[in-house]
Design brief:
Layout lengths: L2 H10 L6 H13 L4 E4 L5 E4 L9 E7 L5 E4 L5 H14 L6 E7 L2 H4 L1
Parallel strand pairs: 3-5
Antiparallel strand pairs: 1-2, 3-4
């Protein structure tokens, strides 16, 4: 969810909270590693509970530019991606803990 989605959800539950408070609280929880902040557009971010929605760590985001919709999907293991991860790990003696891929474009509704 992005901060505006969180704010709207709270308003539907009749929770009086400002959008600024939602922004500050979301950023604070991300700094504490209780939320995962995902930058998906120029100045926009999504917040998700790490491990809450998906068990594996690969995420693919479909970002629709015109309607500003973001679809978070968790694809099956991609052999080529696993090979790239293995090569990077070996080359840089590192451990990769998260993989994020973003695709931008237009959804079917925006193309009409």
């Amino acid at each position: 969810m992005n901060t505006i989605d969180i704010h709207h959800a709270l308003q539907r539950k009749e929770q009086p909270i400002s959008l600024a408070t939602v922004y500050r609280t979301s950023d604070f929880l991300a700094r504490l590693n209780l939320l995962k902040k995902v930058n998906v557009r120029d100045k926009s971010s999504l917040f998700e509970f790490d491990g809450y929605k998906y068990k594996n760590r690969e995420h693919v985001y479909l970002i629709w530019k015109h309607c500003a919709r973001v679809i978070d999907t968790c694809p099956p293991k991609i052999p080529k991606l696993l090979e790239i991860e293995r090569n990077l790990t070996e080359q840089h003696y590192s451990t990769i803990t998260n993989i994020q891929i973003s695709f931008s474009g237009s959804c079917v509704s925006c193309n009409k």
